[in-house]
Amino acid sequence: MAAHKVILDESEMPTHWYNIVADMPNPPAPPMGPDGKPVGPEQMLQIFSMPILEQEMSAERWIAIPEPVREIYRLWRPSPLCRAERLEKALGTPAKIYYKNESVSPAGSHKPNSAVAQAYFNKQAGIKRMTTETGAGQWGSSLAFAAQMFEIELRIYMVKVSYEQKPFRRSMMQTWGAEVLASPTNLTQAGRNALARDPNNPGSLGLAISEAVEEAAGREDTKYGLGSVLNHVLLHQTVIGLEAKKQFEKINVYPDMIFAPCGGGSNFAGVAFPFFADKAAGKKVRLVAVEPSSCPTLTKGHYAYDYGDESGYTPIMLMYTLGHDFMPPSIHAGGLRYHGDSPLVSQLLKEGFIEALAVPQVATFAAGVQFARAEGIIPAPESNHAIRAVIDEALNCKKTGEPKVLFFNLSGHGHFDMASYDRYLAGKLEDYDYPEAEIAAALDRLPKLG
Amino acid sequence: MAAHKVILDESEMPTHWYNIVADMPNPPAPPMGPDGKPVGPEQMLQIFSMPILEQEMSAERWIAIPEPVREIYRLWRPSPLCRAERLEKALGTPAKIYYKNESVSPAGSHKPNSAVAQAYFNKQAGIKRMTTETGAGQWGSSLAFAAQMFEIELRIYMVKVSYEQKPFRRSMMQTWGAEVLASPTNLTQAGRNALARDPNNPGSLGLAISEAVEEAAGREDTKYGLGSVLNHVLLHQTVIGLEAKKQFEKINVYPDMIFAPCGGGSNFAGVAFPFFADKAAGKKVRLVAVEPSSCPTLTKGHYAYDYGDESGYTPIMLMYTLGHDFMPPSIHAGGLRYHGDSPLVSQLLKEGFIEALAVPQVATFAAGVQFARAEGIIPAPESNHAIRAVIDEALNCKKTGEPKVLFFNLSGHGHFDMASYDRYLAGKLEDYDYPEAEIAAALDRLPKLG
Questions:
Q1: pLDDT digit string, tens, across residues B202-225
Q2: Is residue A1 scored above 70 in pLDDT?
Q3: How many CA atoms are closer than 13 Å to the CA of A179, on its beta-carbon side?
Q4: Which residue of A5, A448, B90, B390 is 20 to 30 Å from A181, comparing CA positions?
């Protein structure tokens, strides 16, 4: 058997992030206020520090990764590129399957790639405190780790129902020194309003965002950190795909298809964007974003201006959306339960550079278990979406005899998701009907422009 | 800052395990029956297959790691050797701190190093089924992973109280396809006896061992797998220290002191034994086993023949012991709650080649949190024992100004131990008084020889 892992030396770690905006044929549409006018920097600077805002607006192709960020990255990066040869054998496919193992970070997912950068740039800008929100806790734990590395105080608004039902991600955040509050709180107007309406409000991601943003906007020393969707977050994640390109070069292989789970878009962007330039230059590579069929933003949503959050605090952005107040079913891949998608990912789909497909929940867990039994690692429920798509394509190759090279992002491990595996193994996991009526109704409530 | 990790290529992975018996000045004392006569192979073969028994008895210095075992090792090995430079800075010590990161295995600890070997050799011997026991689940999940890799059926007797209170390690074992039963069961005589005495018996590790051994002894197609203590288990773990030696050679560094947690002994043996030969040849290196002060086998036990299990099913072995029916306090480092210690480790301590020290529980968690906040990784409670000892030594170096090279085994991550971190962070974790009376009483019940 061939080597399982392709490893880069720390000295081979990318020195720059890749900004896809420089290579997109059309410039991205600007975020706008509800009045239909582009949002000015002064509004954004209320919640983001200047270096973050500069990256958000930049059209430079390469943006340097500062040495202090690289120092923290080196705690786990470069991450391995692995050949899933045992899975290939189990499937009997002629396809070659590779994955980038992002589960090796301290927080157990790709999320720290941006969290570390955000903590560093805020620290550089003299910021002492940050706020953020978290649902199941992948992003919250990543920013908790990162904030500790740069000695930034962090307050995390954690959706109350997760705070109570998933205590161990909370413990992780606290171990790294973050303050974790069950949202809604009575510390913000948004929280107080929600509690006035319902003292037993279980919270929601949209509400937690509103609390974190409100606090950051109201305090000079405090900025907000977001885990996906925005350009600068996607930028930071490109370290994944840039490493993967070097790793593929070392073994003289180039992927035919690249798969990643897609919720807000940073996972997909991280692995796929660095290959986009090759594709734009004529290279044949298919980039496939995989989403849950119960929250089918890219495959069933509208391409329209919409709010990033449920309550309409954020600017409106041009993206695929199911409507900002669409409430996705309670699937176990919490990281993919988002009504919208990154504007950059959305535009690439609209313009035909990438593809999207949707897969149902039970089949994703079946894929995750099959992967674990072949390759060892128990994947995060989000990652199982990519694995499902890869296995389906590999089985297709078995029929056609094509030895395609399939590559996916193993974005995280499932150590904090074992209750979901339990439900799957007990046959209690459900698929959800495509929530057609709810999506149609939510799309009717999209903001009306001009 | 220097590179954080020293990485070996897969081609540099050791080809042989190191058998310390070949280099020990005195041969190990043989296991005996309660009659005081050495145990014959026919008794051992009831529960172990021939290749395992051969390794258990071998005095060959090098034992080849078969290619199929190396193939599975490559899923995560070679593991990184890391420099904890951020921890050094936080401590302000002139000491240099290195650790071997064994948390990167699919099961999250060093345990698969032996589990994979045991599954392979049993498969080679035509064995279709294995049994084992597990407490908190580190060993059970490792053998579940390994058995799945070689398509061996596995039944795990999991201590009932852990089965109910720590469901996620159980989910992991089931994800890898193992059958997990809450022990005591009514499938074995040992279980039925225990249930007859108390239908609500919460189980114990000793009882679970008895069930697993009884089943293996009674079925031709089934053998038993043990996670520590015995010579062959320690042998398999030496891949850790052998890799570390190569990694230190690459950076032209040699450790002054090596630390590892010590429960049954395989963790310590894995990292320290390969350095023993150098030490025996005159090299100055101190090998330090770190145990909990509430279960101080090496520091307060007797060096005597005793049973390996609570109920006296196993042969008696010459080792440090607190008495086979001593019940250690319920500390959170479940892997270190063992009344005895490996005969090989015990003999090395008795003969003055290694050192042992005991540390209290709360201080180990303080060390773990300090490590997590400097280096990112949240360690397993067992690993925190080594970290406590390393930090204390590094602080000592700060006083003396000595730039010692300190090396320890980060044997696992704490992702399934966050409830313990919760208790620590909430100030609810307890230290236990040294259980002097209980240990004295248990030592009085040691088997009488001759």
A1: 888 888 998 999 999 999 999 999
A2: no
A3: 10
A4: B90
Position A63, amino acid: I
Q: Give the list of residues 6+ apart from residue A254 with CB closer than 8 angstroms, or none.
A: A248, A283, A285, A405
Q: How confident is the model at residue A450 (pLDDT cuts 50, 70, 90)?
A: low
Contact A176 B373 (CB under 8 A): yes
Domains of chain B (ranges plus CATH)?
A: 20-63+110-231 (3.40.50.1100), 67-108+238-444 (3.40.50.1100)
CA distances from B328 to A147, A356, B227, B293, B339 (A): 39, 56, 19, 10, 7
Residue at token pair 């990485």: B7
**Both tokens assigned to B260:** 């590892």
pLDDT tens for residues A197-256?
999 988 888 889 989 999 999 999 999 999 999 999 999 999 999 999 999 999 999 999
Contact assignment for B75 to A1 by CB distance below 8 Å? no
Residues 6+ apart with CB under 8 A from A350: A303, A320
- Residues A2-31: pLDDT tens digits? 689 999 999 999 999 999 999 999 999 999
Among A9, A172, A418, select the one facing B418 at the smallest CB separation. Answer: A172
- Retrieve residue B360's tokens: 């209290």
**d(Cα A31, Cα A322) in Å, to the nearest integer?**
18
Compute the radius of gyration of chain B from its Cα atoms. Answer: 21
A167 CB neighbours in chain B (<8 A) are 418-419, 422
Interface of A with B (CB under 8 A): 1, 3-5, 7, 9-11, 71-72, 74-76, 86, 104-106, 108, 145, 148-149, 167-168, 171-172, 174-177, 369, 372-373, 375-378, 415-416, 418-419, 421-422, 425
Q: CA–CA separation, A5 vs B7, rounded Å?
A: 12
Of the candidates B85, B83, B145, B135, the one whose C-alpha atom is nearest the C-alpha of residue B110 is: B145
Phi first, then psi: give them for residue A419, nearest 5 degrees.
-60, -35
For residue B317, list its beta bridge partners. B306
pTM of the model: 0.97
Helix (H, G, I), strand (E, B) or coil at B332: coil
Tokens of A17: 């992030």
> Looking at chain A, which residue has its C-alpha nearest residue B71?
A1
Task: Return the half-sphere exposure (C-beta side, CA atoms, 13 A cut-off) of residue A201.
Answer: 23
Considering CB atoms only, which of A106, A171, A369 is closest to B421? A171
Preceding peptide of B184 cis, ω within 30°: yes
A161's CB contacts (< 8 A; 6+ apart) are A202, A203
Please, are residues B237 and B65 in contact by the beta-carbon 8 Å criterion? no
The Cα of A19 is separated from the nearest Cα of chain B by a number of Å equal to 27
Decide if B2 contacts B86 (C-beta within 8 A): no
B305-328 residue pLDDT tens: 999 887 788 899 999 999 988 888
- Is A388 within 8 Å of A238 (Cβ atoms)? no
What's the average model confidence in pLDDT over A88-110? 98
Residues near A290 by Cβ (< 8 Å), separated by ≥ 6?
Answer: A259, A260, A261, A262, A356, A357, A358, A359, A385, A386, A388, A389
Quick: pLDDT tens for A151-208: 999 999 999 988 988 889 999 999 999 999 999 999 999 999 999 999 998 888 888 9
